[in-house]
Amino acid sequence: MAAARTLQQGLSDQHKVILIEQHSELYFQPSLLWLMVGRRKILDITRKTRQMQASSASVICSEARTVNISKKTVKTTDDQTFSFDQLILATGAMATKANTKELASAGYNLYTVDGALAINSAIKSFRGGEIVLVVTSLPHKCPPAVYEAAFLLKEWFSKAGNREDVNISIHTPEVIPLQQAGTKVGQALSEKLQKQKINLYTEQRFKNVDPVQQIIHFESGEVPYDLLIYIPRHVAPEVISDSGLADETGWISVDPFTLETCYKDIYAIGDVNHILLPSGLAMPKAGAFAHFQSQVVADNILKKLEHKPPARFFGGKSACMIETGSTAFALWGNLYKQNPSFIVLPENRFWLSGKWFVERVWLYEHS
């Protein structure tokens, strides 16, 4: 969306910008956490895809089925075919079908509207016991979200008056929280979790769940639960693999600075791309990266059409505001360094206001 708007504003009338979007409604996904604890209603964070028509590009409400690299065409599921001179792939990541049915019968998906609403309903009648948040595999969208969810749930039960009757734990395959950001960030987040008596278990590799016995099986052992909240395994959408665009990781390899793929005039931004960091880990899949990358690609396409070299490069810099309940703290650093040296900015309500502001901007831009 951001790239389409930039291109539309910078191109002459002889060019056409086409945005293919499979969903008729879009949700501001970071606000699903607020939906989970009742701070938002679904209509508060929803925008119709058709509303974007005038402000950005020609919007096609359909799903891309195949990309023909040699013919430079995109075919949709309703059999429309679009030719392209420049293609930006921003398909995001999707939950795999593996274990989805089993997990859905046992708990609630943190990353869907239905899941957030179901969690909200469940916590209203929850009188005590074990709430277990499970990251089933890496990578997944928005790595901080599982930690923010735990903080928000802790605050919710504190206000409800039964905080002492509820135990909240996080089980993740990560070695340390937000491991791409380095040990300083991981230690800071671990300490904040410990301070709020949220149990953290790292290097936990999920195997399966027994919804009848309410037991989660990890390679390291079994964990009982009363309320299960999970993040499913994420993969690239089928159009990526079906079109031969995926690398051995299942995602799309790109130049880390220009976001161009190995195929001329095809770019991949956001969750769907794969960038190997100097640390040996992959670039996290987070909305902030998608936004910054979209601006780099859009500006460079405009330069390319003017027969000029790229003017902007993605430098791996990252900022993130992490909510801890009634307040938040912020991170700032560069993932492209061999040893990421992130600054951890102290908790205050200013960062919480920052999250609100980002939400307002997204809702305005998608109106």
UniProtKB/TrEMBL annotation:
FAD/NAD(P)-binding domain ranges (all copies): 1-273
UniProt xrefs under Pfam families: Pyr_redox_2 (PF07992)
Record's protein name: Sulfide:quinone oxidoreductase
GO MF annotations, alphabetized: oxidoreductase activity
PANTHER family per the UniProt record, alphabetical: FAD-DEPENDENT PYRIDINE NUCLEOTIDE-DISULPHIDE OXIDOREDUCTASE (PTHR43755:SF1), PTHR43755
Alphabetical list of InterPro entries matching this protein: FAD/NAD-bd_sf, FAD/NAD-binding_dom, SQRD
